[in-house]
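User:
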Amino acid sequence: MRKVILRWKIPSLRGAKELSRFLEVAERVEVLGHLAVSTEGVTQLVEIKMREGHSVEEISDFDSFEVLEQHEEDSDGVLVSLLCTHPLAVSAIEMSNIHVQPPYGIDAERGMELRLSGRSKSIRRFLALLRVILPPDKVSVQSLRGEERNGWSKTLTKRQREVLSHAVRRGYYGQDSDVTLRELADELGMARSTLGEHLQRAEQEIMRMVVDDMN
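Assistant: Predicted structure:
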């Protein structure tokens, strides 16, 4: 599994004509939730901060957006139900094994951010599509395995985790470390060869997982 954060700077959005025009009338758009998905598009709960002199009704003038209902308004903006048919949003919602995670949105100063989670192959396919239609400036990828942020606890044995943790705490992997395997083995009450084998296997498993994540 992967969790991905995609970011676009304002100059990169100028190639997307409708998004660029959107920012001419709105300062900020934040998608707070997805209310429904249909063949028409995605109905979103959205907070919109309009620019001075513009009203939220103007959003419906765009091809890919339609304000269905206005709920409330305060200093932070207007809360609306918005039907979005923009290809970027629709493809992200409809693509199997991908979950688009609110909140996400677009800001006239910071640019646009989109958060996804899903199976690695599906994420890669969606990123390949994005690089064609709207290449992101930054892609941050985090590995997810089950409920863990990484998979070390399930991949390494209890003894391997114990030995590895002790070696790290003692500074064994430090650049100028003078800690020896003999010292670690004595402190843990085991033979040097046994400790060395545990460390070697733990290191091999970790490097294998790192390579998997890189790919």
